[in-house]
């Protein structure tokens, strides 16, 4: 018989979470540590990372870095691997949304968005895959979005990057799943994070978004725990190349 607890047990695994200083990335780091993993938390804000690692305890380590800088990818992977060894799991939660309207999109805003949201997840994963291949086991979780398939005002660059994440997830799965590495994405609905601050600052807009879901409410940080743990554990061993929408049924309507 299968032990249900063992399916979700991450003891002995090392996880890396980008964008861990706030929002869903921070929540992901806390949850993975609670599930038994040692967690390397990556972001640009040292103070926020220190606070997170103090909360988690000795099974957490902080790496301050700008993951969008491709020139530092090799050295970044070395720093990430130093505390506990090469990661078995990587969660790409770092992201940016400049919210520029179509007529106002700047080359700088476009490049910044694509570099962090789409380019970094690929090249950082590519650099970590050899160690996963050597173990015959790995989990890569990208962050998609409602805008992976829907167009929102002010979301030209962000939407393009998140639509790209959906296809990147499928392509990475095709390339690496034969080596025991599953690649999936989570597509969050509206969750209260720094990235969605402007949305939740408008009560009328937040209520409108909640009404668009099948469940009738916006997400809470706890709502990401189960889906993410599933995709990071043995429970999802035969699931790869998928985008799991965690949106309360927003995209079902």
UniProtKB/TrEMBL annotation:
Task: Drop me one GO molecular function for this one.
Answer: oxidoreductase activity, acting on the CH-OH group of donors, NAD or NADP as acceptor
Pfam families named among the record's database cross-references: adh_short_C2
* A biological-process GO annotation: fatty acid elongation
What top-level branch of life does the organism fall under? Bacteria
Q: Which family, according to UniProt?
A: Belongs to the short-chain dehydrogenases/reductases (SDR) family.
Q: What is this protein called?
A: Putative gluconate 5-dehydrogenase
Tell me the lineage of the source organism. Answer: Bacteria, Pseudomonadati, Pseudomonadota, Alphaproteobacteria, Rhodobacterales
């Amino acid at each position: 018989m299968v032990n249900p607890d063992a399916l979700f047990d991450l003891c002995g695994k090392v996880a890396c979470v980008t964008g861990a200083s706030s929002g869903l990335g921070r929540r992901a780091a806390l949850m993975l540590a609670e599930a038994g993993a040692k967690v390397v938390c990556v972001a640009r804000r040292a103070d926020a990372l220190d606070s997170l690692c103090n909360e988690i305890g000795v099974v957490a380590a902080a790496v301050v870095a700008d993951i969008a800088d491709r020139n530092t990818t090799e050295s970044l992977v070395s720093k990430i691997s130093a505390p506990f060894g090469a990661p078995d799991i990587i969660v790409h939660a770092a992201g940016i949304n400049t919210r520029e309207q179509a007529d106002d999109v700047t080359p700088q805003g476009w490049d910044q968005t694509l570099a962090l949201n789409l380019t970094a997840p690929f090249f950082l994963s590519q650099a970590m895959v050899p160690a996963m291949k050597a173990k015959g086991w790995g989990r890569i979780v990208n962050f998609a979005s409602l805008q992976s398939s829907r167009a929102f005002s002010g979301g030209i660059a962000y939407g393009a990057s998140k639509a790209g994440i959906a296809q990147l997830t499928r392509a990475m799965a095709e390339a690496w799943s034969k080596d025991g590495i599953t690649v999936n994405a989570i597509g969050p609905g509206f969750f209260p994070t720094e990235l969605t601050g402007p949305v939740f600052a408008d009560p009328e807009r937040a209520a409108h978004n909640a009404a668009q879901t099948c469940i009738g409410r916006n997400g809470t940080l706890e709502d990401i725990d189960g889906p993410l743990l599933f995709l990071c554990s043995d429970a999802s061993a035969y699931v790869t190349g998928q985008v799991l929408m965690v949106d309360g049924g927003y995209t079902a309507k």
